[in-house]
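Title: Comparing notes on inverse folding

I've been comparing how different people in this forum approach sequence design from structure. To keep things fair, I'm posting one structure and asking everyone to reply with a full sequence. Here's the target:
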């Protein structure tokens, strides 16, 4: 009789420890599918280091050798300060520290992990292949041409696939598409724990492509606000990649993305620089101003309008009615124009016509009462912005694009 448990599964190791159904009267089937039967008819199997030799030929049993699971004692939690020297625990701490969470070895930790495995048991040794890899070869290829690329780095015993989004690879020889644009070459491992991961990539230009121009809807925005950034003049064969120093982008590639500004911007330090690349080269950069404060009259500018004729009186040159239009600026970037203040006109006098104009310009910028004299002292002239923000405003995030 074949012994079975309550679930009608074989439990006697003399027949089998494999969990499949059987019934009385079918022990001949049990013997015919045994490892002893297969060995006699098809040859021996390699014996595991954890299994004793096959049993005698006289015994037709369901299982010809026993599985032996190595039994390790329960290891108590050890304190790194009190753990005895020379234990596997102490070796691990010396190599990797006592960080918590999942252990995913970096490229620099693989030698340490191999060192640990020589002395102590590992439940599982991950097989990672994306290690310091780089693709080398031409940065640009003529449409339809065939060139060769090489790959450096990688792990021992690893296999890789190299591929391109548009072109074709045979081995490491790449044939470019027949139309201008861009392409991305990438390499991935297979049959490893990090299979399908892109280990390295290289963006290349297919000559004649990547002609797009980068645009923002507005150079000025409020904290937390969003706007559309877009490309004009490109082609469908171009792939544009976006990145930003602060804030977030709705996508990393495409001809149009949505940018969302950061929630705060103290001292205007979080104003983003947005970079767009195509074919491995930068095709455009946007600098945006993100405002976090509300105030007006934080900047002033004078736009030159007109002047009278320069004339000489004695040894002094004179110019009457040197005029300019004055605009105020808010933190939001909005311009303010008050017709009652404009135009601002002054007469100038000096040792030359240039000196007379400079004198009149100074008088216009300094104002009737001298309230904006500091602007001229800062080097501000017609067409320049005078920054009148206080340090408190700057700290709070008063960030008009015109003053940055």
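Reply #1:
Here's my take.
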């Amino acid at each position: 009789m074949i012994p079975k448990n309550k679930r009608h599964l074989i439990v006697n190791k003399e027949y089998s420890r494999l969990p499949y159904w059987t019934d009385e009267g079918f022990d001949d089937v049990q013997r015919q599918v045994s490892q002893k039967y297969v060995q006699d008819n098809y040859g021996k199997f390699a014996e595991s280091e954890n299994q004793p030799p096959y049993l005698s030929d006289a015994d037709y049993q369901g299982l010809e050798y026993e599985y032996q699971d190595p039994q390790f004692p329960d290891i108590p939690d050890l304190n790194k300060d009190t753990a005895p020297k020379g234990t596997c625990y102490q070796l691990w701490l010396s190599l990797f520290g006592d960080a918590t969470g999942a252990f995913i070895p970096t490229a620099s930790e693989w030698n340490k992990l191999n060192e640990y495995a020589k002395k102590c048991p590992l439940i599982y040794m991950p097989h990672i292949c994306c290690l310091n890899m780089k693709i080398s070869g031409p940065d640009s290829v003529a449409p339809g041409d065939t060139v060769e690329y090489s790959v450096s780095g990688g792990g021992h015993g690893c296999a890789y696939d190299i591929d391109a989004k548009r072109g074709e690879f045979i081995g490491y020889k790449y044939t470019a598409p027949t139309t201008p644009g861009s392409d991305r070459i990438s390499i991935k491992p297979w049959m490893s724990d990090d299979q399908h991961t892109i280990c390295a990539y290289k963006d290349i230009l297919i000559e004649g492509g990547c002609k797009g121009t980068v645009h923002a809807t507005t150079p000025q925005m409020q904290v937390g606000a969003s706007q559309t950034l877009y490309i004009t003049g490109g082609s469908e064969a171009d792939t544009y990649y976006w990145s930003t120093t602060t804030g977030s982008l709705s996508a990393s590639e495409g001809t149009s993305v949505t940018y969302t500004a950061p929630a705060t911007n103290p001292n205007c330090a979080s104003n983003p620089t947005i970079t767009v690349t195509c074919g491995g080269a930068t095709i455009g950069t946007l600098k945006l101003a993100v405002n976090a404060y509300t105030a007006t009259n934080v900047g002033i500018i004078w736009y030159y309008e007109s002047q009278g004729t320069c004339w000489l009186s004695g040894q002094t040159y004179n110019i009457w009615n040197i005029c300019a239009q004055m605009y105020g600026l808010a933190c939001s970037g909005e311009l303010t124009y008050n017709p009652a203040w404009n135009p601002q006109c002054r007469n100038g006098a000096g040792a030359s016509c240039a000196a007379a104009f400079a004198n009149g310009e100074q008088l216009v910028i300094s104002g009737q009462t001298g309230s904006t004299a500091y602007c001229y002292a800062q080097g501000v002239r017609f067409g320049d912005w005078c920054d009148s923000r206080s340090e408190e405003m700057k700290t709070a995030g008063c960030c008009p694009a015109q003053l940055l």
